[in-house]
Amino acid sequence: MTQLALVIDLNVCVGCHACVTSCKQWNTSGWAGPMVDENAYGADPTGTFFNRVQTYEIGSFPSTETVHFPKSCLHCEDPPCVPVCPTGASYKREDNGVVLVDYDKCIGCKYCSWACPYGVRELDEQQKVMKKCTLCIDRITDQTLPEAERQPACVLACPTNARLYGDVHDPDSEVSIAIRERGGYALMPEWGTKPANHYLPRQKNHMHISEEDLQRSDNPLTKEDITVYSGEETLDDVSW
Amino acid sequence: MHPAFSVIFLTTLIGAGQGLFLALFTGQLYSTIHLVEEQPGSFYAVGSALSLLLLIAGLGASFFHLGRPERAWRAAAMWRTSWLSREVIVLPAMMGIVFFYGLFHWAGWTEPFIVFGDGALPVDTTFVLGLLGVIVALALFVSTGMIYASVKFLEEWHSPYTVVNFMFLGTASGFMLAAAYSAWLGNNLVGFFGTWAVIATLLGLGTRTASLFRNASLKHQSTLQTAIGIRHRSIEQKSQGFSASSFNTREFFHHQSPATLKLVRNAFLVLVFPVPIALILLAYLLESPTLPIAAFALQYLGLLAERWYFFAEAEHPQNLYYQQIS
Asked: Which GO terms describe its cellular component (chain B) (predicted)?
């Protein structure tokens, strides 16, 4: 089984929204038609996006940290949005685990968006069908593209390499190793959706140096140094 | 959640339609075994037409919920997994049964083909259709309720109360309508339907207040900590990623003040339960032909508020991600 997914490294995401704009650019000009914007230059612009970058402040001043948090469909291994779809428009691809919507079958009932705890499905206001991240299915499966370009647009756009892409079921893939060795975690694990996308937590490169690391207690130098005696009883004073 | 009027009307109208059918068949059952006065076929036929009208109106309202109503026929496909799909199948089945039930009564095709127990229980086609209709009506209540109750992270809805509330409240308004219909016709079934309406209303009062109490002390499993996976007691969203609105901020928020919510809750608690019960009681004492109609109308109004509150009360976990514009 293959399960394609993204792994997002929160250590290096700088919140530049390049993934958001490149996603919009690629997918709005794709085969599935535009991702509609309404009132784009007005006071309340709104539109369809597959990907958002949010910002959170952790802690209280002065010990705070800003975390930029890219959020898109997590391509759950047990997606709650799929079984609820009355038409079968919402489905999970057998061959690579990508969760997709058939825009020709969708009736726009919005039930799948209710059944997604992550809020990553958005109804297109003009086409009136549910839209969501496709993991750029038209790029990653396009055999005419050079292999290095068979990646989602957001991954190619990220300037800090915060987005890793690959098969999380292959234990030797870059993403699997990243999840395994850098503490990759899933969002809202309480619902058992088993998201395929993972996030790599912030890691601080603190070294923990104890006194013993600097000064070995069993240092042979300290063992073999010349003891200075100051009149106390030594072995030499014992009469045999 | 954002309370959509299409779904509010759908659930309340078909609830009343199913309830009215249950009331008509209960009346038939009682008259078959001579517990209440026998009614002419036209009583059931017009009643069924009324029930069918409510079911059709509900179905019509549901189309306004769809982005692509012309594709609605596709919604019957996934009945194996989707309660919405099951509802889409059971609702027309209910309509068909109500239609034939009314038709058979209107045409007078009520010759019993089998008689049990020395003339005590004659069974005709409408009796069989009625029994079938009861099963389908219950299945429809379950399907409608489970659409909401099956979404496990909408914790306000994810409880058996959701299904029984739909069942009792729909039945109550249907029997209330049957009482109003009888009062309008001037037959003497007002007391019979009214009594059952009061019983169903009281059952609904029990389960609905139980669900209100349950939801008042509900502790949501998802928090901002689990939503973004960062273990810290103090996390604050600084930007949701866009400066205006999106589907996520429209569909999952009711955008009403807590005071409005409380007002609607109190309004439905008054309109659905004590007011119709008092009016039916008064109608029984005064033998009024109009008070049962008022009882139904006010209870239905209350049920609209009840359903509005049902949606507004539910807190979707995705809302955790959409707290702050910038």
From this structure: dimethyl sulfoxide reductase complex; plasma membrane
- Report how far residue A132's alpha carbon sits from residue A120's, in angstroms, rounded to the nearest whole number: 7
Residues of A in contact with B236 (CB under 8 A): 56-57
More confidently predicted of B123 and B60: B60
Q: How many beta carbons lie within 10 A of that of residue A240, not counting itself?
A: 2
What ipTM does the predicted assembly reach? 0.92
Q: Domain range for residue B82?
A: 5-229+238-321
Chain A positions in Cβ-Cβ contact with residue B76 (cut-off 8 Å): 86
- Is the CB of residue B229 less than 8 Å away from at least one CB of chain A? yes
Q: Which amino acid is at A175?
A: V
Residue ranges per structural domain of chain A: 4-200
Alpha-carbon span B281 to B292, nearest angstrom: 9
**A60 vs B: CB within 8 A:** yes
Q: In this model, does residue A191 exceed pLDDT 70? A: yes
- Classify residue A229 by its DSSP letter: P
Domain contains B147: yes
Contact A33, A104 (CB under 8 A): no
The answer to whether residue B326 is domain-embedded is no
Angle at B64 between CA B60 and CA B70, to 5 degrees: 80
Is residue B62, in this structure, part of any structural domain at all? yes
Yes or no: domain A4-200 corresponds to CATH 1.10.10.10:
no
Mean pLDDT across B175-203: 95
A70: which 2 tokens?
Answer: 């890219």
User: Tokens 């402040």 map to which residue?
Assistant: A57
> Based on the structure, what is the number of domains in chain B?
1
DSSP code of residue A66: E
